[in-house]
């Protein structure tokens, strides 16, 4: 055990709700019922298994003796097994004076348990290899899939008069089609000139490329499936720049949270962590949100949870911030009332940076 580190004081956090405001009170030596900060590293599509274990070992070495925060590591699927074998509590305790405060995270999961879903990974599969928590609804998956996979091109290819004519004939022959669809196809076949159809096709192709990704409904199914397998969930939400610029931030966040949590019981909420990640603040080169912006959204989210689940859940749920968290801004971010930790992308790939983030509360 490294006595220098363990004898340092870690500022602990205790929240109180007064006059519609959540306050963070610093206290030394731990407070009963205090919320433990959670610092999670999302490695995204980086690190082969062996280099992931090496990175984890460097992080643990730099974080020796840190017990007052929860630490999460989210390697890609291929790295989970090897890391799971490495981060056994007994080993972490003897080697690094760490223990049960290290959690293995997956970056995503599917909602079905098994079947013809080539390429997908189920919650059962994650639980079976020792995954503790799973990130669901990350903005990379909510918005970027259309761009990478060219969603929309198959729709665009079909928006020709020839295809629509054949489709109309097929639907009529089959019978029972939605009359609205039949009427629209009849109109397009009769009136739509080739140029308008080509323009419409281009419009939808661009739209889908820009915006298509996991829906709120798919995210809801994933949340239920993961919780049902005993995995804890880190549910990401966040507005894009367009929503922020048009003052739609809160409407969008409320929709994301309400749909994702629909049907989740108050009891299951103890296994749920929210990560607020404004899309415009995520990724190398972006600017993190300001403390005022973070504070305003965290208050909003906590009050929303209060409306949905009541005070007990609202006061105990952890709400993390993510978006360019770095060693030089973590102290300021963690000082914001209502911020209980961070989801870290780029900086989590650098052992020293991530360790400094984890150790934000240690007296220097
Ligand atoms: C993320 O991808 O979840 C993230 C917050 O990335 P970064 O820290 O690089 O902005």
What can you see in these coordinates?
With 364 residues, the chain is of the alpha/beta class. The chain folds into two domains: 266 residues, Aldolase class I (TIM Barrel); 63 residues, no CATH class. The protein is 48% helix and 15% strand. The strands form two sheets. An eight-stranded parallel barrel has the order 3-4-5-6-7-8-9-10, surrounded by five helices. The chain has a two-stranded antiparallel ribbon with strand order 1-2. It binds phosphoenolpyruvate. Phosphoenolpyruvate binds next to strand 10. InterPro entries: Aldolase_TIM, TIM_sf, TrioseP_Isoase_bac/euk, Triosephosphate_isomerase, Triosephosphate_isomerase_AS. Involved in the gluconeogenesis. Catalyzes stereospecifically the conversion of dihydroxyacetone phosphate (DHAP) to D-glyceraldehyde-3-phosphate (G3P). It is an enzyme of class 5 (isomerase).
